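Researcher: I'm preparing a figure for a lab meeting and need a structural model of a single chain. I don't have an experimental structure, so a prediction will have to do for now. The sequence is pasted below. Please return the structure as tokens so I can convert it later.
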Amino acid sequence: LMISSAANRFLGIAASLSVQAFFHFAPGLVFGGQVTSEYIDAYRRDIKNATPVGKFVNNKFALWVTAMCAEDEEEALNIQCPNVKTYLEHSHALHAPWLNGNAPHSYQWHYEHFGQLYEQVKSVDIKEVIKVGLGSACIGSPETCLKILQRMSDAGVDEALFFMQSFTTPHKAIMRSIELFAKEVRPRIKPPKQAVGGQPASHGHHG
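Model: Understood. Here is the structure written out token by token.
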């Protein structure tokens, strides 16, 4: 089982039920090229007192990652940055009433952060926003993608769920990106550093 979280309070619910947390919008988790562990820490803390809905404790934290890996940095940015901007514009249009302060309580946190992100994108070149750390984007050369994923791993992220098939992304570019992630990025990710309470960042167990 997995709980998809658009708001940080749902992490506590996921932890209390001992199910995997899937965070799909995290401007506070990945910011300025650095990964903060505030949300992961909360999940790890609360899951210690979980009442599992299944037969084991699923102590895993997943992050939805807009991704594109290419041999050349600019190539990856040119392919995927316009799609990121289109996604944000479509999301803004869809949720405009809630962005004006009328969001349900459970979504207020999400839309406050989304609104800030959208304003950034309007005033700054989308490529520059991506480069300094847009939400959970992982777009660039193998070296850049490795650095981003290593930071996520060190912060305690167990799984990165890549989203590459967006709007105008060419199929050939998607397949090449998958190949580069598999051959040139994943094998070079080092085991995560010690995380919360001196425990390894990934310590889900079956019982």
